[in-house]
Design a protein that fits this description.
three-stranded parallel β-sheet, 13 helices, 8% strand
């Protein structure tokens, strides 16, 4: 194959505007190796795992010349951004196939691409709105019901926790909707009580529909399409040294101007509170720090607390990544010697 190209599997790098907090490749790195799926969607937009999987698969097909529908069909697919179509067109002009290398730590992206998309219903706009309203009611009602103790505890939940709860409700409501539409309501006894056979049957079908979402049933992954997929996870050879590297990375982002970047993006509307980038580690903690009560630029305590939260969240995510990929038998763990220079860490 002719050289290689990198396909980013990073959910934050896909958005335009963000730079330091997304740890995007530098201009020199982009000049050295072509990167795809970086800066493909506006900061105010949304880029789902399904959309990323679709775009990544199309790019892989273009790189390897494995699209059964022909080049024109590949380019004319409905993509999230015009830049992806342009990348496809340029790839198809290459004389020889190119080796695609997918790089990134967004676990859901990688899982979907390798193993396939889960067979879960896509929520309608009405269900998304209902889930949002119910989560809001849950916060207000429970806070009123259980007082300050509950209110203080629930205030410590991150936006990602509320997002996951909302997504869970979307799955429940979508499964219920599918079951109700497929159930012959007219044939059921309208005078039956709530514990009737029909009602129990409906509840059982809803439970089965919800359970199927979490059973790992997937389809149309790269292996399903006949690709020879090689998966590697570069893991630190020393856990304590890795913690130090993570902490230094957080500090380096701050030195490069993460706080200033976050403030500018927030003021310009390019870091919407309900967007993916605002929920990302680094930006989330920085926004909380900038919006703290009674801000004082000389408040060392607040800054120390902010830095500690930033580093802790990053360490926890790194640990979660390692645990996630260890559970996936497809991935081979490659030790990285952190005492060596970046060019000599992998032997």
């Amino acid at each position: 194959m002719n050289g290689g190209r990198i396909i980013s599997a990073d959910s934050v790098q896909a958005y335009r505007g963000v730079q330091i907090g997304a740890n995007k490749p530098t201009a020199e790195e982009l000049e050295q190796t072509v990167h795809y799926l970086v800066n493909v969607v506006e900061a105010t937009g949304h880029y789902t795992a399904a959309e990323w999987m679709r775009d990544a698969t199309a790019l892989i097909q273009a790189c390897t010349r494995s699209n059964s529908g022909g080049d024109d069909e590949l380019v004319e697919r409905e993509m999230v951004s015009q830049s992806v179509r342009s990348d496809l067109s340029r790839l198809l002009q290459e004389e020889k196939p190119i080796q695609p290398v997918v790089v990134g730590g967004t676990m859901m992206y990688v899982q979907w691409l390798v193993h396939g998309k889960p067979d879960a219903p896509r929520p309608s706009d009405e269900i998304v709105q209902k889930s949002l309203e119910d989560v809001s009611k849950m916060y207000i009602n429970y806070s009123d019901m259980y007082g300050d103790t509950f209110r203080n505890r629930i205030a410590k939940l991150g936006k990602n926790d509320w997002y996951r709860l909302r997504r869970t409700l979307e799955v429940v409501y979508s499964a219920t909707e599918v079951v109700e539409k497929s159930t012959d309501v007219a044939s059921m006894d309208s005078t039956a009580s709530m514990d009737s056979t029909d009602d129990k049957k409906r509840k059982r079908l809803v439970d089965q529909a919800i359970e199927s979402v979490y059973k790992g049933r997937r389809y149309n992954g790269l292996e399903d399409q006949g690709y020879d997929v090689r998966c590697f996870f570069l893991c630190p050879h020393d856990r304590m040294m890795h913690t130090q590297v993570v902490d230094e990375r957080c500090e380096d982002m701050l030195i490069k101007g993460l706080i200033t970047e976050t403030a500018q993006l927030s003021f310009s509307g390019e870091l919407p509170d309900d967007g993916q980038t605002a929920r990302a580690i680094g930006y989330r903690q920085t926004l909380d720090y900038l919006r703290r009560k009674d801000p004082n630029p000389l408040d060392d305590k607040s800054f120390s607390e902010f830095l500690d939260k930033f580093r802790t969240a990053t360490r926890q995510y790194a640990k979660k990544q390692m645990q996630w990929f260890r559970r996936d038998g497809k991935f081979m763990f490659i030790p990285v010697d952190l005492t060596q220079s970046s060019n000599n860490r992998i032997t």
